[in-house]
Each structure stands twice: as C-alpha cells, then as structure tokens.
Amino acid sequence: MTTTAPHRPAPPPVLDVRSFACFVIDGAGRVLLVRRAWPGLWSHAFDGRARPAEPMTQAVARQGREDLGLTLVEPVCVRPASVAARGVYLASVTGRRDPDPARVLAHRWVDPEELGRAVVAAPWALSPALVELVHGLGDGDLPTGDTLGVAG
C-alpha cells in the first residue's frame, strides 16, 4: 500500500556559534593541558558557551576565570564555529599562570610540538576532544607560528 500523506522535511541543523573550546598559551608559547577528575585524561584548558549578547572574547575570558581561576587576555579565534564544529580560541595567561588547584586535578605546560607528538603516540592518554581539536588546527594557528606537527 502506498500513502500520499505529506511529510515534513527534516529541520535544518542548529548552528551553535556560541560554544567554544579554548587553548591557553603562556609567555613561552607553551600550551596548558589540564586533567580533571572526570574522566582523568589530559585535555585542553576548557570549553564554554557565551551568554546571550556576550562578545565571544569576553566569554572566553570569563570562562577562564570561572573554570581555572586564571586571568586571560587577548583571546583569538583560530577556527570559527560551524555546523560541524565549535569555535576554537587561543588565549594568553597573565598574572598567576597556573590554574587554581581546587579546580583541576593536575596541569602541565607543554610545547606545541610535544602536544603534537603525544596526539600521535599516545592518544589514549588524551581526551577525545583534545585529539580532535589538535587534528583540526592547521599551520599558523598558534600565535608563535609553530605548528602542532601532527602526523597522519
């Protein structure tokens, strides 16, 4: 039996341009990795979402204070949000450069090349989000002009 009942088309994908991931860079160009109790893997500094009408750079700075207790300056968008991915920001740290120990289980500052090698050699020790973000960053995305050197 064939029906001729009309059907509704699928709704268009929702573009969430207000969510972001952030890498934090220190004065030496090193990337902050954090380990939280959940799930215990090393990951990028933090994720967040801008409030309605909040400029993205202010949202990144606010989330850095709330998540890590750090003062961040100069957030830069290195990959705009799209239907397929959230935006990615890099921000510099000023003042106290280590996260509040009450907010993270552990932290480590690593050279971008070291992070790139870890993504290839030991992705099981890193959060899936971090591995995906590193693979998504391209040449010239880091303020120093270094690349993450991810093979494959």
UniProtKB/TrEMBL annotation:
InterPro entries: NUDIX_hydrolase-like_dom_sf, NUDIX_hydrolase_dom. Residues 15-132 form the Nudix hydrolase domain. Pfam families: NUDIX (PF00293). This is NUDIX domain-containing protein.
